Amino acid sequence: MPERGLARSLVEAYVHFDLVRPRGSAAAEVAHEPDGLVLRLGEAEVLVPYEAEEAAREQGLTFGAGLSELLDPGQWTLVAATYAGRALEGGLMYAAGAAAGDDAYERVATNWRFAADAVAEALKFFPEGAAELPAEAFWSEEGRTLRESEPARLTREKLERDLTFYRRSLTDFQRLRTP
Fold it and tell me: What domain range is 90 assigned to?
């Protein structure tokens, strides 16, 4: 029986599989089981309890409520940077008229929203009042590597600046759209 991870939303499960294998979410299969939705990718499985997915949708939480058990703060920071990069590129194409239409607009807006939400996930790992994350908050190879190579990217101050920037960028991008 494969080891089963626990996700707080289906989106979080898909992001996890993209970290496990490039474009892994595209190859993952979803099954409905009594406990919830199960995402499978080869031997890996992630359970998304129905209650957790419903709560995430009701509360408008992209990645779910509470603290992630699948991704550590370093991974969330990398995920945020990936979404922000996509949003910047897509936003420039949209503003230049090279990408137009509702789909292009929604992709850019979603990428900014996901970038902000991913940073918010990383911030959840900070102990109250702490300026830096404890070493034990990092369990993934990617997270530990980022912490060792670029510790300044993982301070509360830096992540809060990133969160503000991503949210402001989303708002600024939304202003480009004319009714």
Answer: 73-176
To 10 degrees, what angle do helices 102-123 and 73-96 make?
A: 160
Model confidence band, residue 68 (pLDDT cutoffs 50, 70, 90): very high
The structural domain count of the chain equals: 2
For the full predicted model, state whether its pTM sits above 0.85.
Answer: yes
DSSP 3-state percent helix, strand, coil across the chain (nearest 5): 60, 10, 30
Using H for helix, E for strand and C for coil, what is the string for 130-149?
A: CCCCCHHHCCCHHHHHHHHH
- 24-44 confidence digits (pLDDT tens): 888 899 999 999 999 999 889
Are both 124 and 148 inside the same structural domain? yes
Sign of CA dihedral 148, 149, 154, 157: positive
Side-chain half-sphere exposure of 167, counting CA atoms within 13 A: 10
Grouping H, G, I as helix, E, B as strand and the rest as coil, residue 100 is coil
